[in-house]
Amino acid sequence: MALKNNVMGVVMNKNYLLMLVLVFVSFSAIAGTPVPDYKAERVAEHTYVIFGPTTRPGPENLGFMNNPAFIIGLDSVVIIDPGASLESGRMVLRQMKKLTDKPVTHVFNSHIHGDHWLGNQAIRESYPEAKLYAHPEMIRKAKESEADSWIKLMNTLTEGATEGTRAVIPENSLADGDTFKISGLTLRIHIMPAVHSYTDAMFEIVEDSVMFTGDNVTYLRMPRFDDGTFRGTLAATEKLISQNFRHYVPGHGPTGDKKIVESFQNYVATLYGKAAAYYEEGLSDFEMKDKIVALLPDYQQWPGFHEQVGKHISLAVLEAEKAAFE
């Protein structure tokens, strides 16, 4: 009888170990690759930013390439744009916890592009009571199909490094002028129509004179205009420059004063203005490309310039053509 019990015990132990192995293998198959630590830099008294690489998402950067931020208040933390994946979000929390043990209570997402907000999953995982906010159009588009599209795109671009990420879509919508009093700090919402993606919200930390522009501004990195407008971007950058915040945090690239916004605005104004003028002269986008590129020497070293500038010119021509019939 004892022998029988021992044999059954061995079998059960083997089955238990096999089950653990299967669970581990199953978990590993859907787990993403951990993002290495990027140091959080203090931009202002309460505001910290993790500046991501300015390259396109790929297996080298594991999809992490935006500028997540956290703002430490009296008794809680606000997070802005926690990155492109579950693992990006976890990395952001690791950096935050090196500086504070205060809980995250609010998360703000700048726009629909998944490299900025798919890290929400990590925040919800660690702080299930945190409130998530975004532009109402971002919420609508994410629920319709774009959340799934971005998850698939990031996983493809990173060759599986973001596997296991799922969409945690904000539940709370924002409006221009909304003001939040959070943990002794004031966060003000700025929304302009038709800029980078038609879903864009910008975030002002009043006490720190910091403006998070989202991808309405990028610096030392080419933007994308597939979902936005050049004229809307020029209007937004003009407003941002006039407000003269002490610190501007772009969606990609290093922070700075209003000079970084002026630099970005100059690229957009030159490209769109010349494309519209050459369109009026009857030139095609192909015929005007070399002429416009020659006017942009300061931007040719920005990552993505040579891949994006032709597309930007084509989109500018389409926008100029549309404007001509308005």
Fill in the keyword field for this structure.
alpha/beta; 326 residues; disordered N terminus; single chain; five-stranded mixed beta sheet; Metallo-beta-lactamase, Chain A; 43% helix
Report on the structure:
It is a single chain. This protein has a domain at 41-258: Ribonuclease Z/Hydroxyacylglutathione hydrolase-like (Metallo-beta-lactamase, Chain A), CATH 3.60.15.10. It contains 9 helices and 12 strands. Strand 4 (77-80), helix 2 and strand 5 (104-108) form a beta-alpha-beta unit. The strands form 2 sheets. The protein has a 7-stranded mixed beta sheet. Strands 8-9-10-11-12 form a 5-stranded mixed beta sheet, with helices on one face. It starts with a helix and ends with a helix. The protein is globular, with a radius of gyration of 23 Å. Helix 7 (258-280) runs antiparallel to helix 8 and helix 8 packs across helix 9 (305-324). It has 326 residues and is an alpha/beta fold.
